[in-house]
Amino acid sequence: MKEKMSIAKLVKRKTKYDLKDYCEMRGLSAYSLYKGYVAKRARKILEKDGIKIA
Length: 54
Hints:
Layout: H1 7-15, H2 19-26, H3 30-35, H4 40-48
């Protein structure tokens, strides 16, 4: 069974940055990502960096 990973762990694995630092660099809201809300704009940016959000 495949384990679901948090957005923070996915970002850390792909970019080597913490979620807060990554969001600051990309202009995203870290608070909404911590809560699990991913906006269309944020999804596009994450996918562009190779982070696939289910």
